[in-house]
Amino acid sequence: MEPLEACCMKRNTSQIMSKKTSRVTLRKALRALRNELPESEQQHAAFAVRDNLLSLPDITNASSIACYLPNDGEVDLRPFMHACWKLNNASALHTSLPVLHPVCKGHLLFLRYTEKTPMRVNKYNIEEPILACSDVIPTFHHQVILMPLVGFDASGNRLGMGGGYYDRTLASIQAQIIKPKLIGIAHDCQQVDQLPVQHWDIPVNAIVTPTQQLSFNRT
Fold first, then answer.
1. Which of 133, 123, 186 is nearest to 157 (CA)?
2. What is the DSSP string of 34-58?
3. What is the pTM of this model?
4. Which of 1, 23, 79, 165 shows a CA-CA span of 20 to 30 A to 94?
């Protein structure tokens, strides 16, 4: 039997793009698709993405990886983070989570995250580490930043939730010669033929889904 995500992608994404081409309506439709995935499919996606990520040299060679906690049907990265913590017993591999910046509105901070990190719920009802300056990892100190996607296409364009948090946060490091690799994480059913792109959208270096590892040449 064909995986549910593959069926979902074939059945729905062409209809979305032909009838709903604005970013607002496209975002709404793709969020609905991922939220319709049953729990069993979500669990399968979490472990499949974990395995795909752990096969990437950018991941295995990293010492600091920014992750996220799932919300609104996003792929769950907790199995991946647990794998990183096991690797950390033999290497200096650290994970972090985004936190809404308390001063720069619309921006993110990244704080070191472990199983023992004290957490709070932010205004979007998403758990985030309680702010502690000693736990802040500067954005440019990460080798990899894993980003949740609402939608993506085969050219590496991404559609986020619409708040612009990642675009604003990452804009400040785009001129750097050495900067984090940006890897988008999504379900297969979130892929569309072509995304409407805005000038402020920061594309990713790679996209990982339960069945795909797409990479793109970025300067």
1. 186
2. HHTS-HHHHHHHHHHHHHHHHT-HH
3. 0.88
4. 165
Summarised one tens digit per residue, pLDDT across range 46-70 is 999 999 999 999 999 999 999 999 9
Locus of tokens 């804009």: 171
Between 15 and 85, whose confidence is greater?
85
Alpha-helical regions (H) of 1-115: 4-19, 23-35, 39-54, 57-60, 78-87
Band of residue 178 on the pLDDT scale cut at 50, 70, 90: confident
User: What residues does 144 pair with on adjacent strands?
Assistant: 65, 181
Owner of token pair 């502690």: 132
The CA distances from residue 131 to 69, 96, 101, 127, 140, in Å, are 16, 12, 9, 12, 19
Domains delineated in the chain: 4-215 (3.40.50.10420)
Residue 10 scores a pLDDT above 80: no
